[in-house]
Sequence to fold (442 residues):
Amino acid sequence: MSEEAIRKLRRHFILVTTLTIAVVITVIALLIYVTNREIALKTIREELNFIIENNGDLPESKDTDGTNENQDNSGVVRFLDEIFGNSPAYNQTEMPYSARYFAVLYDENGDISKVKTGHIASVSEEEARSYGNYALEHKSFGHVNNYYYKWETEDNGTTIVVYLEATSTILANNRIFYLSLFVILLGVLITNLVSRAFAKRAIAPEIRNAELQKQFITNASHELKTPLAVIRANTEMEEMISGQTEWTESTMRQVERMDGLIKNLVLVSRASEQSTHLAVDNVNVSNAVSETVENFTSLVKHENKTLTKNVPDGITMRADESQIRQLTSLLMDNAIKYCDENGEIRVDLLQKGKGIQLVISNSYAEGANVDYSRFFERFYRKDASHNTDRGGYGVGLSIAEAICSAYRGSISADWKKGIISFTCILKQVPIPTGTGKDRKQE
Fold:
């Protein structure tokens, strides 16, 4: 596993962990805030209803000991009953001494008959009248500034408007809201820091598995070379003694196929490491692409196909020239193998900012119902039997994708009107420490 792949895996782990904890903390904080707000609103509604029921007055409690004889002494039961039950969420005993409110009464003609401001000093009678008229113009329950109000019309046509001062409740809700935001931000920050500290340890098994897989491929390829060499030598000796037969030809074809598979296994294993071995320099991409394409000219003519090249001069970017040539070679090889008979192959190169866009397309009449999303899977072939009559083992495009990823770019395949196009976008990468010209001098 390359350093870039490790960094991506580490970033992915940190991102997923942080988002998961952030969502959990946010949901918990919202539940706490909403629950507290609903309890507060329930208490305010009940206090307003109690005042309205007493026509704007608060009678002194008959419980001289300050307790409710029907009240359960269990704190948990009382809490749940206050939230979900029918018992009042406020203390009727203390309410006459703690409630700050004013009431405005209207007769059946809609005229103010009485204003009660005895339980509040900060509101004058004139202000109370204004507040009362405002409430009647709006819904029956709401709030104005730090006051919650409610009004009801009795059966006899009279109306009462009660305003309850709820500054402490509003401030408490605001404190919980801002505290919830602080907890969310703090939780996300702590989670991010902890995730960064433990990310390397968390992804260590994946890195270990990748290293073991790479080691297995390398060891297996070396171990398989010896028996293949013996089989090849024995078959060639048999052909020298007894002559070539269909059985020896079949054996040699399978040996060649196995040899190609082994080489491609090693190539795929090394492809993921390319991003850590970039000989980065300012490269004339136009020359690199043109020269690589020219190497395929004779093969294209031999296959009775035509080649169109649109590669302007002077296109440059900071890159590893060998990888630009390898990418072009892989796509050209793929285009020649799968181009229709007497078809056309086209190469287009464009400058994209400080990067490049390379498009290699070819005629492909059978491409209408092909799953192009799987083209870049290692060892994937459209033919389910994995027939290799056309050559290749389904790894070229996978390696091309690895090269594009090393340059923080992308590769995609699309088909339109009988033409399949592979579009590669490569972004310029900064010169890593110890690479480029410095490495060449070494």
In short: The first strand starts at residue 101 and ends at 106. The two ends are 25 Å apart (CA to CA). Confidence is low (pLDDT under 50) at residues 61-73, 384-393, 432-442.
